[in-house]
Amino acid sequence: MNWDQISGQWKQVKGKAKEKWGKLTDDEIDVIEGKRDQLVGKIQERYGLAKDQAEKDVDKWAKDF
After folding, report:
1. Considering only CA atoms, which of 56, 49, 1 is closest in space to residue 24?
2. HSE (side-chain half, CA atoms, 13 Å) at 13
């Protein structure tokens, strides 16, 4: 799924994001609203990952979706 699709279907997709990244709060998931950069940033904060690793994880998740 590409990011335009994910962004457009965020209400349906956010549950899968919460399953994948359980350290993210429901409020954070709601604020992200399907924005890739915001998701990457929150994953970096919560999991202590480098930006490139967080981006790879998000891209892999989006492809597998």
Report:
1. 49
2. 22
Q: What is the pLDDT of residue 65?
A: 75
- Which one-letter amino acid corresponds to residue 21? W
| Angle in degrees, 0-180, between the axes of helices 36-47 and 51-64, rounded to the nearest 10 | 120
**Who contacts 58 (Cβ-Cβ below 8 Å, separation ≥6)?**
36, 39, 40, 43
Concatenate the DSSP letters of all residues of 12-59 into one string.
Answer: HHHHHHHHH-TTS-HHHHHHHTT-HHHHHHHHHHHHT--HHHHHHHHH
Rounded Cα gap, residues 21 and 27, in angstroms:
13
Q: What's the predicted TM-score (pTM) here?
A: 0.93
